Amino acid sequence: MNNNAWTRFFDIVFKYVLINFLAFFSSILGLFLFGIFPALSALLFTIKFVKQQTWRELIMTYWLAYKSNFIKANVYGWSLSLLSIYLFFNTRICFQLSPLIFILFGTLSAMALVLTLAFGLNCFLFLDELIHRKDLKSLFFYTIYALPTSLLQIGSIGLFLILISFFPAFILFGGLAALSKINLYLAMKKTTKLMTGEIIK
């Protein structure tokens, strides 16, 4: 690498760490309960502009995204979280009961849980595009089509949680931003295929 390449590399790393810090700071600002989902949505939005904007511009972009999506992110985040928690315990209880009918219900509940997690993930990846009710309908059908990609994204989140259990500092120094970039990349790759008509093939 030449000096310019190293400079660009460390500039990108610094921006990731900066956005990561902003996500933690704004979560605290919202007392975690009301700050974590807006912080997540702002993180996913701002990460798109890492290469185009300076670090000062990224701070402004993040703050504007955090404020504009504060209510919407909390509504979607908590609604889907509560539904996921309900489906998780419902699945667990059903599989603990012996009659076959409960195993069937448990299987259906587990499938609904996976779909809810995938839909919730896509809600935050495309939060700025969710304006009307029909957008939710379109996102639901996209979630079904892109389910393999969503499962891969959920798997990456699971690996991230395992990683930070061994290296907790990773979550503070850009780990969350890097995970967001990976999930955003996978989503953009899938939507690009959809828009270019590869789904027809």
TrEMBL record:
Q: Which InterPro entries match?
A: DUF624
Coiled coil ranges: none
Transmembrane residue ranges: 16-49, 70-89, 101-127, 139-164, 170-188
What Pfam families does this protein's entry cite?
Answer: DUF624 (PF04854)
Q: Out of the domains of life, which is the source?
A: Bacteria
Q: Which UniProt keywords apply?
A: Membrane, Transmembrane, Transmembrane helix
Write down what this protein is called: DUF624 domain-containing protein
